[in-house]
Amino acid sequence: MAKYYLAVDIGASSGRHMLASIENGKIVLEEMYRFKNQLVEKNGHLCWEIDRLFQEILNGIKACGKAGKIPYSMGIDTWGVDFVLLDKDDRILGDTVAYRDSRTEGMDKKVSEIVSEEELYARTGIQKQSFNTIYQLMAVKEQNPEYLDQAESWLMLPSYFKFLLTGQKKIEYTNASTTGLLNAKTRTWDMELIRELGLKESLFGEIFMPGTEVGNFTPEIQAEVGFDCKVILPATHDTGSAVLSVPMENGEGIYISSGTWSLMGVENKTPICTEESREENLTNEGGVDYRYRYLRNIMGLWIIQSIKRNLEDKYSFNDLERMARENSGFASRVDVNDARFMAPKNMIDAIQSYCRDTGQKVPESIGEVMQCAYASLAKCYAQSAGSIEKILCRKYDCIRIVGGGCQDGYLNELTARATGKTVYAGPVEATALGNVLAQLMADGTVADVEEARSFIRASFPIKKIEP
Ligand code: LFR
Predict the structure, then answer these.
(1) Could you give a single Gene Ontology term from the biological process aspect (predicted)?
(2) Which ranges constitute the DSSP H helices of 133-254?
């Protein structure tokens, strides 16, 4: 009987239940269930449909049961930074506001009045982003202080879902590192910072590492899905899981985890919290085995996904890619990390307005807009690789791209060309695989990170694209 490991990987635009087993020394992945995720407007804020997402998690678990493939263990990962506050009866206080919501506007100022940006970075090593949990919690403190008063616990979303499955609350390290409230060197809560900000210290409890067992399904969940299963903490931050499955040799090399966001960086054994690093907008997120994910957040395929949505999904990604190729001579470029691209009503308008404001030719056709988006992303990759090489005082000759975005042939070509580096593309389901790898490490099937990555190399085809 095959032993199955279930990875539930939820991204900003979709979630999936991937079931893994080992056959002839290779990992075999099977998609059991897929569902849509999206931002919804609620009480004037962009929110997640937290109850529906949990229902979808249960639907996917039931799909495994229906197929007669009962997982030995399972793990859940999602995007970072978002959380719920729970009252004494474990009910969510307020709405589950999403990180793209504008509630954090001005919160960076509030925080910097207490701790300067320089000091904050020196302590936490986290790149300044409007949506970091630290700014979201400040927004709660300013706008709904009663929620903080009433809160008995605080959980990031993957841990909240696991709590619903098991009744156990466990905060996990890689995701906790995205809050901007951890001390980068001690890897524990910076309690002084939490006190200085006037947040509630009691909410920030013990932090557990990937591989930790959370518990088994509660009797209620067992009754609903028809079986029991052990729930494990993977790197619950999706990017942490994705980086675990980047097929690097000895942890060496530049990677891009390419999805809604493009996370481009390297793996380090120690954090780099210098002023120079802060100015380059590089972050030190926590990784499996305390390997730091030293990377830059790049707006990523969100731009292309949003264009597609703005065109009412009339065109497939392939259509859009083809139209971009047909306009490869179009030369206007945008700074993909400009705040206007974070959550615009219409992405095409936002791109056009950027070009207009910067005195460049305004893209008119869909192909021109797409070419501008693609080439601007590749340009940002090249700049980011340059920043990383500058800080680390070394050169890299290749980039490993993993995640759904690595299937985009045109972006891979442009990336190779813009960076002058060989691109290796794959695996596609990097995040789900990283989630599974943490489970394999938890049960001793895989010894360590190096073995995990060699397992990926042995199991999945990797495409090579020369510059
Ligand atoms: C990618 C990701 C990024 C994080 C962003 C918001 O899905 O997790 O790593 O910066 O989403 O949480």
Answers:
(1) rhamnose catabolic process
(2) 133-143, 145-150, 157-166, 173-177, 191-196, 219-225, 238-244
DSSP 3-state of 98: coil
pLDDT tens profile 2-22: 999 999 999 999 999 999 999
Q: Whose CA is nearest to atom 4 of ligand 1?
A: 80
pLDDT digits (tens, 9 = 90+) for 430-463: 999 999 999 999 999 999 999 999 999 999 999 9
Q: Atom 8 of ligand 1 has which residue's CA nearest to it?
A: 79
- Catalytic residue numbers? 238
Domains and CATH numbers, the chain: 37-232 (3.30.420.40), 238-300+378-465 (3.30.420.40)
Number of residues that this document lists for the chain? 467
Predicted confidence at residue 428, as pLDDT, reads 97
Contact 182, 108 (CB under 8 A): no
Do 155 and 171 form a contact (C-beta atoms < 8 A)?
yes
Q: Which helix (H) or strand (E) holds 449?
A: helix 449-459
Pocket test for ligand 1, best of 9, 13, 81 (most atoms within 8 A of CB): 81
> Cis link prior to 247 (omega < 30° from 0)?
no
At a CB cut-off of 8 Å and minimum separation 6, what does 324 contact? 367, 370, 371, 373, 374, 410
For position 204, what pLDDT does the model report? 98
Model pTM score: 0.98
Asked if 272 and 294 touch (Cβ cutoff 8 Å), the reply is: yes
Q: For residue 402, how many C-alpha atoms fall within 13 Å in the half-sphere facing its CB?
A: 31
Q: Which residues of the chain have pLDDT under 50?
A: none
**Ligand 1 within 6 A of CB of 302:** no
**CA–CA separation, 418 and 55 (whole Å):** 43
Q: For 305, phi and psi rounded to 5 degrees?
A: -60, -40
Q: Diameter of the chain by CA atoms? A: 64
Asked if 293 and 284 touch (Cβ cutoff 8 Å), the reply is yes
How many Cβ atoms are within 10 Å of 342's Cβ, its own excluded? 17
Atom 2 (ligand 1) nearest CA: 79
Per 3-state DSSP, the chain is made up of helix, strand and coil in percentages (nearest 5) of: 40, 20, 35
